[in-house]
Amino acid sequence: MKIIAEVGSNFKSLDDCINATHLAKSVGADAVKFQLYTHDELYGYPCELASHTGIMPKEWLPKLSEKAKAVGIEFMCTPFSVEGIRAIDPYVETHKLASSEMCHVDMLAVLMALGKPLYISTGGQSLADIAAVAELLDEVPGRNVTFLYCEAAYPSTHVDMRKLSLMDELVGSMGFMTGFSDHSKEVYSVPMLARDNGALVLEKHFNPFNYTDTPDAPHALNVDDFKAMVHALQYTDEPRLGWVKSEQDMVFRHKRRAIVTADIKPGDTLTYNQNFGLYRSKVNDAVGAHPATVHLITGRISKVTKAVGEPLALVDCE
User: Which residue has the higher pLDDT, 50 or 181?
Assistant: First the structure.
């Protein structure tokens, strides 16, 4: 499965984009992707846009392409006009067409003429629309097109992999491949379902700087989560139980452990449910004794001074 880290609007400078390229490589992505558009291309007239809405100047393209080559990751960029395609083409090996542009016949014609592999997202498009585009592209000799199942909600909460199978039945018979453009926040379940349902490509939004005020932040994974997703998709055949970073509060605070309930000093006898018990911790704690070891503590003598609320460990006992 090819994994694309979609930076989208999750940047605020050229340096951000350059650093995001390096970070996309570090988390195991096969490609890093940006977007090139203007208000004119989207709506047909000029307009002032907010400074942090993912607007990338085309002058950045050669610098980002060069950085991607230097770190060994494929550079990709989504166009939103014929002019955008022509600006991007010298710098990419693979083109990507957004869901909103899927039926843009002028863009499709130019992309097919270029002869490079093409990924097409299908969010918000009907099966009839997908079939019409597939039939149009089926007439192109040597075409290399992958249709990406996509729920065009940000973030998406109604992912249904039956749609991927349905789309594969529709376009697979014509020799097209299928993949998944994921707008969910899921790290494991949704991406792995896509893989197990035959997706050859996975596009996932990437927020390497943990921005909260960029348009794509609500449906993007941070560095740790993206890396965990890649590992699960590429290297893990069986699920492994155990905590992940997002469960930190459960591990260090909410799980029951031995907690002092009455002040203890050296020489005191430790008695379960009198001066210690099994409770949550109000501070991060990694030493409080496991519930299964209570019988190894009760009746023993304390070697330390402990205040109410502090964790009690086996090593605290004589």
Answer: 181
Report helix, strand or coil for 255.
coil
pLDDT at 235 over 80: no
CA distance 21 to 30: 11
Strands 257-260 and 276-279, bridge-based pairing: antiparallel
CB atoms within 10 A of CB 73: 20
d(CA 77, CA 301): 67
pLDDT at residue 282 in the model: 92
Q: Residue 286 corresponds to which amino acid?
A: A
CB 190 within 8 A of CB 231: no
Beta strands per DSSP E along the chain: 2-6, 31-36, 74-79, 95-97, 118-121, 145-150, 177-182, 201-205, 257-260, 276-279
Q: What per-residue confidence (pLDDT) applies to 236?
A: 60
**What is the residue whose two structure tokens read 């016949």?**
105
What pLDDT is stored for residue 52 in this prediction? Answer: 47
Q: Using pLDDT thresholds of 50, 70 and 90, give the confidence band for residue 20.
A: very high
d(CA 5, CA 126): 26
Tokens of 273: 């449910």
* 135, containing H or E segment: helix 127-138
What is residue 226's predicted lDDT score, i.e. its pLDDT? 96
Determine contact, residues 284/253, Cβ cutoff 8 Å. yes
The amino acid at 150? C
Q: For residues 109 and 107, give the distance between their C-alpha atoms in angstroms, rounded to a whole number.
A: 5
Q: Which two tokens stand for residue 42?
A: 């989207």
Domains of the chain by range and CATH? 2-235 (3.20.20.70), 250-316 (3.90.1210)
Query: 309 near 285, Cβ under 8 Å?
Result: no
Bridge partner list, 182: 204
Confidence label for 281 from pLDDT (cuts 50, 70 and 90): very high
Which residues share a beta bridge with 121?
Answer: 148
The pTM of this model reads 0.78
